[in-house]
Structures are given as C-alpha cells and as structure tokens.
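User: Quick sanity check before I run a bigger batch. Here is a single chain. Can you write out its predicted 3D structure?
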Amino acid sequence: MDAASTPPGHAVTRVAGVREANDLTLRWLRAVGEPVPVLSGAGAWPLMAALAAGAAGKAREELAEATGIEPAEAMDAVGGYARALSASAALRFSTGFWASPLVTLDPTWTDRLPDAWSGSLSGDLAADKRTLDTWAEERTLGLIGEMPVELTPETMLVLATALAVRTDWAEPFKDAPLMPQEGPWRTDRPWLGLNRTSSDLSALRSAEGVTLLTVAGREDVDVHLALGEPDAGPAEVLATAVRAADGRTGALPAESGPGVTVSIERSHEADPAPLLRVTTVGFAVNAAHDLLRHAEVFGLATAATRGDHFPGVSADRLEISDAAQSAMAVFSAKGFEAAAVTAVGMRMAGAFLPPDNGERKVVSAAFTRPFGYVAVHRPTGLALVAGWVGEPKRFG
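Assistant: Done. Predicted structure follows.
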C-alpha cells in the first residue's frame, strides 16, 4: 500500500514531542479566542523545548509545562522530532540559530542542538537582517520572505524553525463557481468551489459531533477538513480534528452529521458502488503572530521578564526579547502548500526593552458555515499547521 492510499484512520508512529506539539497548538487556539487563519504549534514547540533545556528556576518550570516534556529529555526529543520531519517527502523542516560574538554559549547546550542549528550575528543590523530573511525564504521554498522577529543592537541570540509543505492531492478536485442561494456566502460574485467524487467513503468520518474529511496528499502529508455544528467554537472543532489525527480520539465512518446528507440515486450499473461527493472551497490565508501576547501558552511568561533565566545556554544573563511567527496556507484544486517561520530573540538581561508594537491582526469575515483545517504529517500525526477558513477564494 503506497502512502497516498493509506487509510485515513491508520495508526501513527509515536514520536516524542508530536502529541506535546499538538497540545501546544490546541492551547494556542483556545488562548486566541477567535478564528485563526493559520498557525503552527509544530514550528514553535521545538524552540520552547530547546529553551527549556537551558533554562533555570521558574522559567524552566513554565517551559517544561508548556512543552509537556522534562527539560533533561528535551534535546533528545527535539533531535528525534527534527529527524522524523526531515524524512518527509512533502515537508521541509529546518532549524537555525545565530549568535552575537558578544555572547558566550555553553557547549553542553549547543552540542546537543540538531546539526543545522548554527550561525552568527555580525552586529551589522542590515546585513544580519538580510542573512536571516534569506534563510527564511530559502527554507520555506519562497513562501515566506522575512524572519518574523526584529533585530536590535541588544539582540544576542536568535533561534528559529522553518516549515514548508507542498503536496499534490492523490485525487485532484475540479474548479467550479460556487454561489450559495442563502446565508452570508450568498453573493453576486462566485466563490472558488472545489468538487470531487470518489468511491472512498472511508475518507469521511465523524468524531465528537464533528465531520472530518481527509484529503490525502500524494506523499506523506494530508489535510483534514473539520466541520462542526453552526454554534460550535473553532478551537473545539479543531481540537477534535487534531486529536483524531494523532490517534487520541477515535473516528467512525460518517453517514450523518454536520454537512452530511444521504440520498438514493438511480444507476445504470448492475451493482453500483456507493459514492462520496465532496464540495468545498479553495482558500488562501496568512497571519503574523506575536507569541508573547500569549506568553503563558508557550512557557515564556517569566522568561520574557528581566533576569538570568538561561544559565544552561550561556553564562551571560539572557532573557527573551521577542518571539513571533509568520504563517500562510493555500488550498487549491491541485494541492496544498503552507509555511511557517517561528523565531525567538534573546538579549542580555537588563538590556533596553523596546516598546511593544503589538501584532498585525488578520480579521476574517463572519460566515454561517466556516470550517477548520489541519495539515497533518501522516506518519506521526503531527499537526503541521491548523486554522479556520472564514472566507474562500473567488472564482476566476
């Protein structure tokens, strides 16, 4: 059985950090409290785990709780996590760090980082920005062109992950104009509708009142669409989808539930097989996230205050200056692509704290039947990116 024909409910391989990263994704979604176009807990988790390994005191405790793993085991988990993702045919996962010559790093910490984590900051902010932006663009296959954190003269260390997904569907959709006759999607301009008919009813499942559709990629990344009842919250719907993906929530074949109808049609075939007809929409979303806006989710509440929080990283007194993520996703008739760059900046403790410029907020229009999506690394069940579709693409 090839990867594209793997059943939607197949068992996943347990990799340390995967369920913990999925839990981080779910806590983040709940903390935001509003529909999120796209985010990636998968990109943030290894950064927090690596920081936990070098943290002390309350910062270490908070990072351990946020990552769900003992700090003493964190580096081994990060290494295994990175190797599992790097083996994917549809996924590119990269890690990196850049250190100022003014900071002395502890080799017992740096030697345990994955091999790809190495680099330096020259102190020339313009040149360093070009270096980091180029790294982000190359590691995301051109999907994201900038590192999301701001470099300042106080920046001593930058840690980052980059994640890029590109996969074609095992069974493509057909484009068609979609013009609903009622509800907020009713419009004079058609949306980009996507239609597909197959005999694989196993792709449609139900769990905890949520209808789940697995759209299989040709390699080892699938996208799970999740539709709840009209009054269901996005975080709850996506939580069901994520837990079903990593095997914690059982899903059963669906012949009823949100968005599902069953009808009988005449056929000229002697023994016709049942059909699954799917109608969905194409979408393109992007978002910028300030992780410190929800510092408690990532275990950074104490680490972002003034103090010597990372003695295992450096004998110099280091604290978190900023933490951010840029993410995007596109769902089309032919396939799916998504990317996320997550970065943490560190400075000497007691350095000047720049003013908080807030985050760029992406507001989605309110529609009657929005749905969630989760891109999943099939072998491990890791939720690579997740989000909520509030507005589809236009047709044409």
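The domain at 15-167+283-348 is CATH 3.30.497.10 (Antithrombin; Chain I, domain 2).

User: Great, the batch can go ahead then.
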